[in-house]
Amino acid sequence: MPRFTTYCSTTNGQNLFGNKKRLDKLLSFLPVELKDLRERLLDEWSTDTQENKEEVSTKRWNTLRKFLKENGRANVLKEIVLNFTYPRLDVNVSTGLNHLLKSPFCVHPKTGYICIPFNPQEVDKLDPFNVPTLNELVEQLSSVTNNDHDCGNNDENISSNDRHLLSFKNTSLRSSIEYFETFIKHVLKAENSCFNVNQAEGNSDSFKSIPVF
């Protein structure tokens, strides 16, 4: 879980386990049968004078991770990571798991607005009330289909499926999809680089796909 290790880092992350309040939260996720471990770690870490030292948060996470892995409790690690990284975008998302998450290109059920990816460097130009809506996309796609039919645009080199997938280029989603594609390409490139480095170093914790577990 290399990504989460960086996430909880004292110096490079959010110092997730650097003080007693945060330790309480971490250890609260341990199951009842590990009560003795929870109490022992809380006692040891609470009296530890290393709270202000470099990377104490990462060291604590690695200690817990090693113990759980060695004792066949990797499932607990997954639960902890999910609880700390699950997106909480508003109060409804926090209290109800079935509430709409703002995933790329999802549709808001009340407004019909499309959730679009955008360049954070251009956030000042983003008008949240001027994003594509579902109704607009339906009209735009219908117009493209009708124009192709009227113009006899039936290029034999392009299958019907490919033509359908490329229809977005004629809609107001084009710039958002192209930006998202660029973003994903960079993510995959970074993931492949990390994977190759871990493989070369013989790292047993190296990940084989994008998810942290």
TrEMBL record:
<comment type="similarity">
    <text>Belongs to the eukaryotic-type primase small subunit family.</text>
</comment>
<dbReference type="GO" id="GO:0003899">
    <property type="term" value="F:DNA-directed RNA polymerase activity"/>
</dbReference>
<protein>
    <submittedName>
        <fullName>Primase, DNA, polypeptide 1 (49kDa)</fullName>
    </submittedName>
</protein>
<dbReference type="GO" id="GO:0006269">
    <property type="term" value="P:DNA replication, synthesis of primer"/>
</dbReference>
<dbReference type="Pfam" id="PF01896">
    <property type="entry name" value="DNA_primase_S"/>
</dbReference>
<dbReference type="InterPro" id="IPR002755">
    <property type="entry name" value="DNA_primase_S"/>
</dbReference>
